[in-house]
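Researcher: Go.
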Amino acid sequence: MICLNCGNRFKGNFCPHCGQSAKTRRLKLREMMTNAVETFVGGDNRFVRSCRDLFVRPGIIARNYLIGRRMRYYHPLQMYVYLLTAYAVFSYVLGVSGSFFDELTTLDFQTDVEPSKYASIDFILEQITEFSSNKLYGTIALALISVVPYRWVFRKCDVMRQDGAALPLNHIEQFYTQLYHSCVALALSILMLPLCFIPGADDVLSDAFPYISFVYSIILYSQLMGIKLWKSAVLNTIAWGLTVLLAMLVMFLVVIPFGVMEGLKEVE
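Model: Structure:
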């Protein structure tokens, strides 16, 4: 056989040089459908396994990936992209969010307020809530902001590896952990989409969702670090409070210059 990918001559079902299958066919409808199914539910079954473990063992999937068991699960960023795509498709098909793609590409920053209110705590918190609800850049930005507070709060908690080594999470590993939590939140959002057709359920879900997401964060860190749920709850509360304070500081640095410019325009 001659490998169509690297040109290597070999015998068998797979090229020993690059690993491509010897049965590489021309792209037709059957191959397209097969590739689509294998991407999500077929092949090595990583997507199904990752989605299942996100709900029942969010901390275990994060720990396995961080300590080196990376063939069983998708990369957290790759997983988030797949879930984001699924959320976009389901929300469009169900007609729940017709402006989904507009929400991904636009930042709803209020400009119809008095310039003096830009520095108020209520306005800052409202902008943080609005920004963090965005499923694309808001979620990624919040995961980045939370890295330092969570790493500092959980600095005395280690992740145990197979060889017995105790590993404190570095900044990148902490970011990946936050990405897994974002994947859990997005997967929950997908499951809740059909419930939005129930009258009044949308408001109830909007109010309850932050608490459900926080509970999953407690479970995630409890399983990841091997600590008690009560300890994880206390540390998560402290870390989340510091994250909000840091987000407020960042938002202040953004909106105060904006408010000053708006005030100068009014003076002119």
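Model: Residues 1-39 form one domain.
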